[in-house]
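Structure tokens
________________
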Amino acid sequence: MTAKSPPNPGPNPALPPALPGERREFASAAGRLSYYASAGPAPGSTTPVLLLHSINAAGSAYEMRPLYERLRGEHAVYALDLPGFGFSERSAREYVPRLMTDAVHAMVAELRKRHGGAPVDALALSLSCEFLARAAVEKPADYRRLALVSPTGFSGGGRAEGPAGEHRGIRPLHAVLAAKPWARALFGGLTRPATIRYFLQRTYGSKHVDQDLLDYDVLTTHQPGAEHAPLYFVSAFLFSKDALRLYEQLTQPVWMTHGVRGDFVDYRHAKEFASRPNWRIDVYDSGALPHFEHQDEFARAYRAFLAGP
């Protein structure tokens, strides 16, 4: 990072870039999108790699930093700030899977235009795995390989899935959370440094969290409009009712990874995918961020996946 977060940041502190390389912006059907680009080797020599951060109160492309740094120079690597996060548009609008999926489509179209129409390799973290899966089902030719890190949608005892394309949003809950004048105050309470540390510790399943990630999380949650997307997330609007069916429809090679510590360890439905010829599932002794806790090992495994048949 280029700046540390103060213990109690004031309103609208300066937000440094989350990643090295060039930061670019473009207009899309999902609003103004910002992404980071690391040029890598000569154009056309490798497949471009797209990295997608998770969705939470403090999401940003910084969550991709360990892998981004290890791949740059070897690949043309890109990391997107999804709508409502980082430097992308944070306007007051409805944040649902369709919006996020459209952002992924727009980003991939931008990359294919820059790379002569080549399909991309894409990796997503946590809830964003559902958006990546939907995008890959809708436009399979856009993707060569898919990596799903700690994906949502595999938990729960049954297969109580709803109609295709529907989300799990609870509109009365969102109406209460987003009501003025306390919406910003409520979000401010959820994004105090001590609270962010608490939730990161639950994500890691350990008190040993990445301090730079924590610092960036504090800064990004104190930007104008930072509350809009997270309040839709807390109200379940960004969770899909048909997530498992989306995963079942993937035809590309898929590498799924997850940890065994913290709040995100229920992957009981993963066994339904273990025998699929296009799926590989690896389990790490980590929390939900194995690419932070096992940085070199994870990067080596991802390189091997990208180079596989």
User: Anything to note?
Assistant: The longest strand covers residues 31-38.
